[in-house]
Amino acid sequence: MGCCDTQPGLIPFDEALQRLLKGSDTVVDTEVVALADAAGRVLAEMPKASVSVPPADNSSMDGYALHTSDLLSSETALVVSQRIPAGSAPKPLQSGTCARIFTGAEIPEGANAVVMQENVRLEEDKAVFGAAVRAGENIRRMGQDIQAGAEILTVGTRLQPADLGMLASVGLSEIKVFKRLKVAILSTGDELVEPGLPLESGQIYNSNRYILTGLLHALGMEVVDLGCVKDTRESTLEALKAAADSADAIISTGGVSVGEEDHVKGAVEELGSLDMWKIRIKPGKPVAYGKVIDTPFIGLPGNPTSTLITFCLLGRPCLMGLQGMNYEAPLQVPVKAGFERKRAIQRQEYLRVRLENGVVTPFSNQSSGVLTSASWANGLAVIPPETTIAKGDPVSFIPLSELLI
Ligand code: AMP
Ligand code: MG
To answer: What CATH number should be reported for the domain holding residue 305?
Structure first.
């Protein structure tokens, strides 16, 4: 059993998440952007549709438009009185005739059905129809997608390609979004060196900086990179003040335990307020949450895999709230365990796994210092506290793609 499993004061994951979400109201202003630049931005004002989509009844087929009352009980030949390609304005249909019509073209007044061309025989200037045509057949109704006046998306939606298409379909060329949240990141640790520099004895390269930058950019946020911070009280205070001055939120990694080389806790307490939680999850040591002056602060553990997982599960929902984004719990799908776990632990575990053919296989080394596990994985298997797993048992799987956007 790991050292932390029996420690008192571990709080359940859901409680930590609720506390984070409660403190994360929108902190950013709004701006107007061109629709073409709005992918991944967060909607700040709910647009009302000024037109219906489609704006008029139109044909879902290449065929012939007619009124079903003109059909006899046997075969009927009707004169083709007009041709209506998509994009043209139709004339009213003369009664007792039909109109050649194409997919997406507006249905002429007086027609109530479209017969697909495969079911029509042409004889000179006439089209011959069988008897069985339903009123409404092959007609897409005006407003079947969007009704004029409808509020088509909710504030807080992170705009996906389909959303942009919908906004375009009602004629909007620009929209109001929340400004990108500016997030200051700082990597604490005397041992850290930036890639590109030589590695001296006792040093390691800084990976968290790149993990966090990637995660924040994927969320559409702006990164204010404050680089590495030495493990001293002065450097930590200075970096946190600079962060509060220049960003809407602050994320640090490392230095958040209570050892004498860990200065984040004391520095945040001196500049603002701090809650530190030992959360009942693995990987993940203490996560700190509070304010530096008035700026929301999250302190993540230093091990790269812990940084990644705690960011995805806790930091991300919090930042999404500050960004004005609606938070939806990540999708969890039931899959089969391709492994066994005989020894239950008290913490909820997030194994780095690959899902293939409905079965999940964990990476062989699940240590929080082994980042290869997360790079290799395509998702996380959630093992609830106090649970053993036999091969073939159902387990919940969270696709990493749910957490990395
Ligand atoms: P700490 O929470 O500061 O005690 O760090 C826990 C572990 O994570 C230590 O082994 C650190 O060297 C390592 N670590 C902390 N920050 C980073 C970083 N930015 N990149 C890679 N490893 C780190
Ligand atoms: Mg450290």
So the answer is: 3.40.980.10
